[in-house]
Design brief:
Layout: H1 8-28, H2 37-53, E1 77-79, E2 88-90, H3 96-108, E3 119-126, E4 129-136, E5 139-145, E6 151-153, H4 156-159, E7 183-191, H5 194-206, H6 215-223, H7 228-232, E8 237-247, H8 255-264, E9 274-277, H9 278-292, E10 300-307, H10 310-316, E11 318-319, E12 322-323, E13 326-330, E14 335-347, E15 352-364, E16 367-373, H11 377-383, E17 390-394, E18 402-406, E19 443-444, E20 452-454, H12 461-472, H13 484-492, H14 507-511, H15 518-531, H16 536-542, H17 550-560, H18 563-567, H19 571-574, H20 582-593, H21 595-606, E21 632-636, H22 644-653, E22 657-659, E23 668-671, H23 677-685, E24 689-690, H24 692-699
Parallel strand pairs: 2-13, 21-22, 21-23, 23-24
Antiparallel strand pairs: 1-6, 3-9, 3-10, 4-5, 4-7, 7-8, 10-13, 11-12, 14-15, 14-17, 15-16, 15-20, 17-18, 19-20
The chain binds 2-(butylsulfanyl)adenosine.
Length: 706
């Protein structure tokens, strides 16, 4: 189909498409929007209107085409031009797995002991769903699942809705940048980030809807959703890891260079990858990623090794459906079966009563788990779990272990949908207690809510303890050494009743506690002192305001810049913050309307808790870009007046990004005392180097010198 290009409507439509593509990338990929959301929506609606009036002007890569189409009866079959192979899995999770693969490759290539090590591309094995994206002349024309490897399903309309995660990229581009190929099939994985998964399930739970078992199932379900509007509401992301059919493009020599080229075209490619030499390099990669597995924002079930040189891949070829040049090397599973011993009730920081499963201890996701959450009464009922059942426990990342479902008699099927599984009649049905098991106050459930709450507030020792633990948490004030045993003693012994009283703890008080040596007491005093310099985002998160998680706290800090501005903001002003809806805005306002909460903030400030503040974004002209929008900075060495966290928070609040390593794409390197190799690299590449004063000038919007 040719698209008419000469009329004013056609020209405006083309202009709008460009603008929308550009701003969507600013928002989703760079996390540095230049226009308010409302303006984006206005442009979007204008394009929609033109396309509705002149259907011929609507192109396949139009941003309006992310969510199109109708409910399908089923998916059309797609025959893959190049089969989608699977990959051999090395289940030996120790170093042996990598060594065995390298030995096989060397043998098959006829390499002897004296030959150099083989170079491998090592990458992550994403736990999602394999997808083939077909681009013709740079435009996405089709997306298909793997199916049986020969024939998959046409899921184009759902894949178009894959937008990725604001600030982290991961969207499927509808159009590639600078792609001259006639045909370029890109293969990769559609997946759901853990934070997106948790939020999705939280929403499902609040509505009383069925929750998803794990991010992979949620992603796979979304891709195979017959209604694209539902798919569009599921937060999906994508990583490219290979190619299918390619015509009219000269391939680079190595797999690594292929991925670099795909990234250049705007495809999301995971940066946790490297080229390593021989078995030793593979083992080191497997170990390094294994150590960081919990910190990754998404699930992986292993790493993948690929012979890097494409020429060698061709030489090695395939056995049946698996290439000889690649292998997946697993990590211990994140889901395991175990026995449910009992269900108990725990009282959380906000008074929420949570049914907790007491489990036969099981090793899952790298640790031994003996407790797992069942979230609320209704979810427990839906999953139909009772003492004595065999259940599936999932633990991934920092997320609290949870019960996914129960296993029906002997069979491996998960019965989260409530499949029948008769059990001995004597197991009593679980009931929520009517009074708080900790303080005896009345338990209430608000109308329409799925949550039961203790009404005791800070009178309830459980709530006080949880508030302290949350405050001290790694992502909040990060007070190392203030664990649950110590908090139990402090609260039960009446040593501490409020958050600010934490900062009154001195050596004498601490040493008098059980199991507290002079050394640990001193460490805790030092930790408390250190924790006083923090960031506004951490402080806000630490306060434990209902509905204010880490991400919301960051958004609030970025938007308001100063505590007093935030505390005095109206609900309407609060709701102007991206991702803050009326419920969250109400909760924040209600929190600061309580005099005792304002007092807590004042007392903490009086105890010396400080953070850097900046001019709030709303004070700038609404359409003026943030001073560091689109800029990538790298920090190295120790700055005189800011620690890493604070510098990072300031840069991010000015719209900039902080990267871990220096490349040609780095805009500035901020160097302090004892700066190391990053500073050298900056000089090699000619990247401007700033000191703290230079950074501050930049944050204030000054053009950098030099
Ligand atoms: S390459 C010929 N690379 O693992 C090699 N696969 O059977 C084809 N997967 O479901 C696969 N991460 O979707 C490759 N970095 C990665 C991967 C990856 C995840 C999935 C893939 C497929 C399975 C391999």
């Amino acid at each position: 189909m040719t698209v008419e290009t000469s009329s004013p409507a056609a020209q405006r439509a083309a202009e709008l498409r460009e603008l929308l593509h550009y701003h969507a990338r600013r928002y989703y990929v760079h996390d540095a929007p230049e226009i308010p959301d409302a303006e984006y929506d206005r442009l979007y609606q204008e394009l929609e209107r033109i396309e509705a009036e002149h259907p011929a002007l609507c192109t396949a890569d139009s941003p309006t085409q992310r969510v199109i189409g109708r409910v399908l009866e089923g998916f059309a079959a797609v025959r893959h031009q190049v089969p989608m192979l699977s990959i051999r899995t090395e289940t030996d999770t120790s170093a042996g797995g990598a060594e065995a693969f390298d030995a096989r490759v060397r043998r098959e290539l006829g390499l002897g002991q004296d030959d150099a090590p083989v170079a491998y591309a090592a990458e992550l094995k994403f736990d999602g769903l394999a997808i083939n994206l077909r681009y013709e002349h740079g435009v996405l024309v089709q997306a298909a699942t793997r199916g049986d490897g020969e024939t998959g399903e046409d899921v184009t309309q759902n894949i178009r809705t894959v937008r990725g995660h604001a600030g982290a990229g991961g969207g499927v581009p509808l159009r590639l940048e600078g792609c001259s190929a006639d045909v370029l099939e890109v293969r990769g994985e559609v997946y759901m980030r853990r934070d997106d998964f948790e939020q999705l399930n939280e929403r499902q739970r609040e509505r009383g809807d069925k929750t998803f078992v794990n991010p992979r199932n949620a992603a796979a379900g979304a891709v195979r959703q017959l209604d694209p509007r539902i798919a569009a509401q599921r937060p999906l992301s994508f990583f490219a890891y290979g190619l299918g059919d390619v015509r009219g493009w000269a391939l680079p020599d190595t797999h690594c260079a292929v991925l670099d080229a795909l990234a250049e075209m705007g495809l999301p490619v995971c940066s946790d990858r490297s080229v390593v030499q021989g078995a030793a390099g593979l083992v080191a990669f497997h170990r390094a990623i294994g150590a960081r597995r919990d910190e990754l924002p998404f699930d992986i079930d292993g790493v993948v090794y690929k012979v890097n040189r494409l020429e060698l891949q061709r030489q090695l070829g395939f056995v049946t459906r698996e290439p000889r040049w690649a292998v997946a090397h697993k990590y211990p599973a994140q889901e395991q079966m175990t026995q449910l011993r009992a269900v108990e009730v725990q009282v959380g920081r906000t008074g929420k009563l949570t049914p907790v499963a007491k489990l036969e201890p099981v090793f899952v996701g790298g640790t031994t788990v003996s407790n797992a959450t069942l979230h609320n009464l209704f979810e427990l009922r839906r999953k139909r779990v009772r003492a004595g059942d065999t259940v599936i426990v999932r633990r991934a990342g920092d997320v609290i272990p949870e019960i996914v479902g129960r296993v029906s008699n002997g069979a491996a099927a998960v019965a989260s949908d409530g499949a029948d599984n008769p059990r001995p009649a004597y197991v009593p049905n679980f009931r929520m207690p009517r009074v708080c098991p900790v303080c005896g106050s009345q338990v209430m459930r608000e109308k329409g809510s799925v949550e039961h709450r203790c009404t005791g507030g800070l009178y309830c020792a459980a709530q006080r303890k949880q508030a302290l633990l949350h405050f001290a948490g790694r992502r909040a004030m990060n007070i190392e050494g203030l664990g649950d045993k110590l908090v139990d003693q402090l609260v039960d012994g009446g040593v501490i009743r409020t958050l600010p009283e934490l900062y009154t703890l001195g050596l004498t008080t601490l040493v008098a506690l059980e199991r507290m040596g002079a050394r640990s007491a001193q460490n805790l005093v030092d930790e408390l002192a250190r924790s006083r310099s923090t960031t506004l985002a951490r402080f806000l998160y630490a306060l434990g305001i209902r509905h204010v998680g880490e991400a919301t706290a960051k958004d609030l800090a970025r938007h308001f810049g100063a505590m007093d501005r935030l505390m005095s903001a109206s609900e309407t002003q609060l709701a102007e913050v991206p991702d803050v809806g009326p419920v969250v805005a109400h909760s924040i306002r209600a929190f600061f309307d309580q005099p005792h909460n304002r007092e807590v903030v004042e007392q903490l400030r009086a105890a010396g808790v400080t953070w850097p503040e900046h001019d709030a974004a709303p004070d700038r002209a609404p359409d003026a870009p943030l001073p560091l929008a689109g800029r990538t900075l790298v920090l190295t060495g120790t700055l005189p007046g800011l620690d890493r966290e604070q510098a990072k928070a300031l840069i991010e609040s000015a719209g900039g990004k902080v990267a871990g390593s220096v490349s040609k794409k780095t805009h500035y390197v901020v160097a302090g005392a004892e700066a190391g190799s990053k500073l050298e690299r900056a000089r090699e590449l000619g990247v401007p180097v700033l000191d703290e004063a230079g950074l501050r000038a930049l944050l204030d919007g000054a053009a950098p010198a030099g």
